[in-house]
Amino acid sequence: MPTDRYRIHPGAAVDLAAHDPDDRALFDGTRDDAEAVIGAQTKRLEALQELLYAENQHKVLIVLQAMDTGGKDGVIRRVFDGVNPQGVKVAGFKKPTPDELAHDYLWRVHPHTPGSGEIAIFNRSHYEDVLVVRVHGLVPADRWQRRFDHINAFEKLLADEGTTILKFFLHISKDEQKARLQARLDDPEKHWKFRVGDLDERRRWDDYMAAYAEAIARTSTRHAPWYVIPGNRKWYRDLVIGRIIVATLEALDMRFPPPEIDPRSVMVE
Ligand code: ADP
Questions:
Q1: pLDDT digit string, tens, across residues 208-260
Q2: Which of 36, 40, 53, 212 is 20 to 30 A from 246 in CA distance terms?
Q3: Domain of 128, in residue numbers
């Protein structure tokens, strides 16, 4: 599949500086051309989601991770535009509550994994526990280092029990983040999105890149692959992610369940 371009192969080293956030190798049309393709993909995704729901066999988990302004919300809005909200649930993971902190870090995550026929989208995820937690030293290093193994085992469990997992890192450049943060400051309707804490995180950009690179390298597996998606152009990001999700769902080879009765044998009066 052409989108394999962005897939991280199991065991491969990851150098994020070698992944161009402006890459657009899979599409040489204009932005308008892309919008038409995205629209068609969304229609296809809508049909596939209905089939997933009707068949009620597979479970699909989509993990979105990114630096602030990286576009997680935009992907959820655009790629899933028109998909029946009854079959898709979004779970956001923010700073843990005291109750969550009193448990292991996967405790709050597991209840949000998808059931049969469902798509679950994680807006941030258990990966925060090897990212922000590492960068801010919230637990000792020997503790977060062990988490890569837990995460791989957790995702293997989900996969073994019928979950198809796709993980996307939306990769923007530091300059692009600057422009997006400034745009939030310049637009009164975007002020609510701006948090002073974002500037503190931005100062730790290099630490985050190192943390992301190791997390992605250590946890990209055959059953739960990471994709590093060029994120500077929103339309390209949405186009590529939509294409990967559609291709993955197509490969599940789903079928509508057979009718309970022969439809020709009943008459609706
Ligand atoms: P978002 O940026 O996803 O739109 P927020 O601005 O509310 O939402 O940010 C959520 C914050 O919660 C992020 O700074 C993130 O790093 C933090 N967070 C998420 N999970 C954890 C965790 N396990 N430990 C500490 N902080 C976390």
A1: 999 999 999 999 999 999 999 999 999 999 999 999 999 999 999 999 999 88
A2: 212
A3: 7-253
